[in-house]
ATP-dependent dethiobiotin synthetase BioD
Amino acid sequence: MGVVVITGTGTDVGKTVVTAALVAGALGADRTPAVVKPVQTGVGPGQPGDVDDVRRLAGPVTVRELARYPDPLAPATAAARSGLAETRPAEIVAAVAELARHHDPVFIEGAGGLLVRFDSVGTTLADIAVALAAPVVIVARAGLGTLNETALTSEALRARALTCLGVVIGEWPAEPDLAARHNLVDLPAAAGAPLLGVLPAGSGALSTSDFVLRAPDWLHPDLGGRAIDPAAGLLTTVGDRR
Ligand SMILES: Nc1ncnc2c1ncn2[C@@H]1O[C@H](COP(=O)(O)OP(=O)(O)OP(=O)(O)O)[C@@H](O)[C@H]1O
Ligand SMILES: C[C@H](N)[C@H](N)CCCCCC(=O)O
Ligand SMILES: [Mg+2]
């Protein structure tokens, strides 16, 4: 699998929970995953960041957080306000390359969506993916509005000749509305890539043992899971429109 970039259609879409599920799948398949969060914002010193959430859900796994800025903002802005040095892309690429010597896969979780700026030069997660020639997973919302957000993200990947492995829905509601149900069918078309996972709402609050046990059922084998069609059990509810 190598290095895989986990982006999202925005912030709070479930990238961290999805990353934890990917780690659980990889550990279950006797792989040696690691997770890099190049820049963590919105978290103060000593508070748990995204990589700590990954370990809380998926269990012990090698993680690296390269920089942290407390304001809940884009990394470039949060770095500028903090007065701390911003994080250079070469530093991120080098840290990932070093981890990839002993870990497979290495997941990189961005901050917010694909084109959020990491530094004052305008470096984005897309630039990091290009530098590492890494494929990308898009984490998307379930409901109304996700088709456009996902298509925009996918188009930005294509414009950079980046490979989109597929889309994962970060939080599938217990009672999906009409838009969410149809999005199971429409998201792959919007993305030009398959739907490779659906995480149920509440999965982020599971215990480690339950999360690890269940995670493979949310993901396609291409992402280390065992669900041939992650939407299969949910698709039966789409019938009421047609
Ligand atoms: N499947 C899920 N089950 C339960 N809670 C979820 C799920 N997906 C997301 N959440 C919750 O939604 C919020 C956002 O999730 P998450 O932190 O994974 O977003 P993110 O895309 O990683 O955001 P960021 O850009 O800050 O990294 C969190 O409060 C998380 O607990
Ligand atoms: C603070 C938040 N949870 C993320 N870490 C950063 C999200 C930046 C989003 C910027 C934007 O797209 O407007
Ligand atoms: Mg996150």
Notes: The chain has nine helices and seven strands. The two ends are 39 Å apart (CA to CA). The pocket of adenosine-5'-triphosphate (ligand 1) is lined by residues 8, 11-17, 50, 111-112, 170-171, 199, 201-205 (CB under 6 Å).
